[in-house]
Amino acid sequence: MPNFILDLISYDVNTHNFFKTYLLALSILTVSFTQSQTAYSQENPEKMEWFKDAKLGIFIHWGIYSVNGIDESWSFFNDYISYEDYMKQLSGFTASKFDPENWAKLIKSSGAKYAVLTAKHHDGVALWDTKASDLSVVKKTPAGKDLVGPLMNALEKEGVKKGIYFSVLDWSHPDYDRNTRETYRYKNDPTRFKKFTDFNFEQLAELSEQYNPDLYWFDGDWEHTPEEWRSAELKEKLLGYNPNLIINSRLGPGFGDYDTPEQGVPVTKPNSEYWELCMTMNNSWGYQGNDHQYKSPSELLRIFVDCLHMGGNLLMDFGPKPDGTIPEEAVNILTEFGRWTSKHESAIYETQAGIPDGHIYAPTTLSKDKTILYIYLDYKVNESLAIKGLKNKIQRVWVVGNGTKLQSREVGKMYWSAVPGMKYIDIPDHVYDKDITVLAVLLDGPVDLYREKGEVIESN
Predict the structure, then answer these.
(1) CB within 8 Å of 298: residues ≥ 6 apart
(2) Which of 247, 265, 259 is nearest to 305 (CA)?
(3) HSE of 225 in the Cβ direction (CA atoms, 13 Å)?
(4) Which residue intervals define the domain Glycoside hydrolase family 29 N-terminal in the entry (predicted)?
(5) pTM score of the predicted model
(6) Domains and CATH numbers, the chain
(7) Cα 221 to Cα 200, 217, 425, distances in angstroms
(8) pLDDT, tens digit, for every residue of 292-350?
(9) Nearest to 218 by CA among 200, 236, 192
């Protein structure tokens, strides 16, 4: 994950290479910023409709790193553990209680419309029976079986879109040029690197042909340029398998369909029309038994609502244990999400970004025709909820999920002024949801906002 930049700086402060490392980190951040400013490629915009309407996805980081409960791949790259000791975890990865059907049912019940599984992280350990390498859970672990196919089949059966995470770098492969923070196997050997990208193409052909994913979630592109990764050629090849395939932004500028901010909740809307925040339930991507810092379901729902307000998706992550069981805390979060999303379904899916901040002290979304304003309250209002600068007449207000009609009124509208009055909605205590209450406000037409600075009274 890109948070390696901070690790990189802190590591080299102790080795007196701070300035050199700072420049490297700065260059990586510059590339990231450039990517965020670049319009993403959508040759087939219709394929993005399901993604835009999906709103919620589930990220699953599962691999041998769950055995010791350590950072996936980064723990040996950062020299917290030797590569040899990291790979000893292969012997403890059993997947003995892996139940893909129950996983898929739980994911669907949460309200998620797609899920993404880490088929291969930076450590190079494949979760399927790859013919391109011996390094897979099929050949090297007690699990001894393909783990990607059964989950993809179960997701498809439940009507959940199938996503596959794939690291384009591989710190285990003999033809990849980097192993750990300080170790380079070789440098500037394009012939050898071409052998490595051929290997990537072979593995991605296997995944595409066997599982036909709806989405690829790439990662690890920062160590080489798009030209070196052969991103254009790779994208063309993948679209040959599935013209409706969606690809995230991590193959380089211009090669992805949507942006992927990570962990930190955006305060302002990302530049891309399509975007997704990926975030962990606790502080770890993969399973770490000592990480009990799980966010509460209510806290995660508020983050989800922030994404809805800005027209994006939330890709919420959990890490299964090495035997394939899902941590109890994660099950609870997914269950609570299911309670809330099923109740407020009409205010989640097929909505678009809400009105600008400042009109209401709450996140909002709009129906596709912009005639229904949805308001999300994670607090109880003092007396009544105020809406500022709404020119429309309010036709009706109701509480989403129970249908209770609420009263609204307008105060302070002067007949001679174009400035609208304050709209107020009275909310009785008994209608509040335990997490987030949603109001639907039906307008007399598409939302029309007053965004000026007010007027001076010159004649009364």
Answers:
(1) 336, 378, 434, 435, 436
(2) 265
(3) 4
(4) 37-344
(5) 0.89
(6) 45-347 (3.20.20.80), 364-443 (2.60.40.1180)
(7) 12, 11, 49
(8) 999 999 999 999 999 999 999 999 999 999 999 999 999 999 999 999 999 999 999 98
(9) 200
